[in-house]
Amino acid sequence: MSPVQVRPAAFFGYDLMYLTKEEERILEGGSGEGPAKAMELLVAIGKIYDADKLIPIESAQIAGVSYKTMGDAGLQFIQDFSNIADVKVRSLLNPAGMDLEQKNYESGVFRDKQKKLIRAYQNLGIELSCTCTPYLAGNRPELGDHLAWSESSAVSFANSVLGARTNREGGPSALMAAVIGKTPNYGLHLKENRSPDIVYEVEGGVSYSLLGYLVGREISDKVPYFRGVSPTEDQLKTLGAAMAATGSVAMYHVEGVTPEYDDFDIGNLEKVDIGKDDIQEVREELMIENEPDVIVIGCPHLSSSELNDIAERLKGRQRKDGPDLLVYTSRKVREENKEAVREIERFGRVISDTCMVVSPLEEKYEVAATDSGKATAYLPKLADQEVIYADIETLMEMID
Ligand code: F3S
Fold it and tell me: What pLDDT was estimated at residue 151?
């Protein structure tokens, strides 16, 4: 590696940024216009965050896949970029705006534009796996792997539960990292930035959705350390997603559970108690006097065990009346659990490639009930829904 001065004409100043000869060649356009643009953005980000160099990544996970959030301008940008670039590492997509194989509630125009957007991403060499749980759908990073992922709940899971290392990328920066196969070395790629900031002593038996909802709101982008709880992997997924939604938590530790909890000295950190009363307060705050017209489950996308748990709860029951039921999971999990899907589809739909937030749910529904802290935070803003938060037992009772 050789230190080179980043060209002041291309960037904002005169600071040193270390590029290899090959990286410098790409920046100068030696691999074409697309890689040069990608390198330009990565170096600019690296400079803003004081990164010393670019580091190789194992995979990229790219948000900005739903036509609902991208619109025509986003579609045009991805189409144009797909004509001048290809990804260099394994790359997957976040949920799109619809199930790519089923027809649900979206309009014909929406479907047409969404398909064009997906084709443009495929043209870049990106795998057609539209899920926020890539780690349950064939791309499970290992301890210490560097990534460029952009779905906030997946970022949280990768850092905290798997011990991989990724910043909370935006869709564009994850895409540019995919094209170069590298990302700037700063933030959560560095061990010292993964240390906890505050210890939460939690009374056991609480809802992880509500715990995450509460802590995310209080802690913003800091790194929490939990003590007193022993969540399963599915519960960790739920907890991290909620904290990433009400705050911007990208990393957390759970004593005795997550892989890096013991790597830091927490002796001098502030300690905060969270009891069942605190969680009950959040539950009451989220209560609304209304009947749901849809129940949405699967934010983040359900694991096989969660999907089977729902099927088990519905077994032997008969559909009568009540709200629609929409259950979201990755295509891989749906295909691997056909019996559970059949059971659930006696009552509603099991949907892949999309979710309740990034699909046009508002075209058909107004009041949604969910057990997800993240969906509770996002559905009012992004899908124009009144939201009823309820645990899974209560949601199942609503179906009768
Ligand atoms: Fe996944 Fe959509 Fe929730 S992307 S985490 S199901 S908002």
Answer: 98
